[in-house]
Design goal:
The protein has about 270 residues and is an alpha/beta fold. Helix content is about 45%, strand content about 15%. The chain has eleven helices and ten strands. It has helices at about 15-25, 45-65, 75-80, 95-105, 115-120, 125-130, 145-150, 160-175, 190-200, 210-225, 245-255, and strands spanning about 5-10, 30-35, 70, 90-95, 110-115, 135-140, 180-185, 205, 235-240, 260-265. It has a six-stranded parallel beta sheet, with helices on both faces. A four-stranded parallel beta sheet has the order 6-5-7-8, with helices on both faces. Helix 1 crosses helix 10. The radius of gyration is 17 Å and the shape is globular. The two termini are about 30 Å apart.
């Protein structure tokens, strides 16, 4: 067993949906979460900037003595997926587990992908799905306003703002007849009810945070690195103001936030 915590980072609050899945799947594990709230969103940044941010995020988590690092960020997983090659601990992104789940779920071979502009522009999901099954048809669409909506608390299914935004983005995908849709950003599960309403009940939504959490558990079990006998618990760090973090964080986590949220200077890493 390995009693060190699991490190998780994201561009902002969206990665907390992955933390929620991790704690549900492995309640005994301790987690250190870093949300780069001062530089969110990553999806509109250049490739070089995203890669630099990812290296700094990982460096901070390493300073916390983690046993594994998860990039709970579709943008980083797509643009800086090779980050793990330079790390002294195992690294897991959301891309591969999510693509594999979508390939298993589709009935018609027509898969949609939504993500940040950087994720879609990279073509990462197209390549990953093609590597799994070249016969799969992939239809993708960037949704750049989804992350700011979630970060600012606009994700209720009753709210016309996310509903109208989703209609605008998703109408072309709906017309392609996809039967499976990848939520290629960990912010997007908060918009899942809205997305499901727009796409229709016959479309299976793939939650990248959930699939990554399950992949993490399989990896730790296989390597003998899990620690199920611990009491669990999470520590939270952000790169911008801590005020207001708990209000949205507890919605994403589905529970009250335990402990204080700490601010760090990510540029020093």
């Amino acid at each position: 067993m390995d009693s060190r915590p699991i490190g998780v980072f994201d561009s902002g609050l969206g990665g907390l949906t992955a933390v929620r899945q991790l704690t549900a799947s492995m309640p005994g594990e301790r987690i250190v979460y870093f949300g780069d709230t001062g530089r969110v969103p990553y999806g509109s940044r250049s490739r070089e900037t995203i890669r630099r941010y990812a290296r700094q995020d990982a460096a901070f988590l390493l300073s916390q003595g983690v046993k594994m690092i998860i990039a709970a960020c579709g943008t980083v997983s797509s643009v800086a997926g090779d980050l793990g090659e330079s790390l002294p601990v195992p690294f897991l992104g959301v891309l591969r587990p999510t693509a594999e789940a979508a390939a298993r779920a589709t009935r018609t071979g027509r898969i949609g992908v939504i993500g940040t502009t950087a994720t879609i522009r990279s073509g990462s999901y197209r390549r990953a799905l093609s590597a799994i099954d070249p016969s799969l048809q992939v239809f993708d669409r960037d949704c750049p306003l989804f992350v700011p909506l979630v970060e600012n608390g606009f994700f209720s299914v009753e709210d016309p703002i996310p509903r109208l935004t989703a209609e605008r983005y998703l109408a072309p995908l709906r017309e392609t007849g996809v039967d499976t849709l990848i939520l290629g950003c960990t912010h997007y599960p908060l918009l899942e009810p809205v997305v499901q309403q727009v796409m229709g009940r016959n479309v299976t939504l793939i939650d990248s945070g959930r699939e990554t959490a399950l992949a993490c558990r399989r990896f730790l079990d296989a390597q003998g690195m899990g620690c199920p006998e611990q009491q669990g618990g999470c520590r939270f760090y952000v790169s911008d103001r801590t005020e207001g973090f708990a209000d949205i964080a507890q919605i994403l986590l589905g529970r009250q936030l335990e402990g204080a949220v700490e601010h760090i200077d990510i540029e020093s890493y």
